[in-house]
Design brief:
Helix content is about 0%, strand content about 45%. It has about 190 residues and is an all-beta fold. The strands form three sheets. A five-stranded antiparallel sheet has the order 4-3-6-10-8, with no helix packed on it.
Amino acid sequence: VKDNMKILKNLKIIIKEVSDNPSLGNIKIKDGGEIYDIILMADVSQPQIIMKTKIEKFSTGNNNVKIREINFSNVYIGRKKIIKFFIENIMKVDAKWKIIDERKADVEFKEDDDFFITPVNGILHPNKRGLITCIFSPSREKQYSSSFKFQILESSNNVEIPFELKGYGKELVIKIDPESITMNPVLPYYK
């Protein structure tokens, strides 16, 4: 490339704004009697993130992604179960992301919600990993389900991974059969 380079006689700085229209990338510069064709070239990358759980991995590069289910199974009322998954930016550009609720535009969790996800947005730098924590804490006995989308922002092809959190809130029940209770000797209360 160095052999094809020429130094212009009148050193001038030329500022040219270039958009995503490839035809605007060709510039003619006139220096005295000579005209130089300059072609601007760029490597354009779309943000892409991989989500990994212990079981499988899903990529935001595939737009035909089916809904992924994160199942907490049975959790007793008043207890919590935590599932964590990793996100990884495999591209050379920053990936700005957020998690959205399918029923609302943005997600805001409160401590007493049955499902809690943290963090719900961020920026993932190239070749970096992040951790997303999902918590299920049921408040009554029933089947729970909520749908979300993991969305890459600033992407021209609306990259999203739909996922669903599921779990069953179970009440702790203790059954006592009076016919089979055996109590060991109890010492009197001492002061």
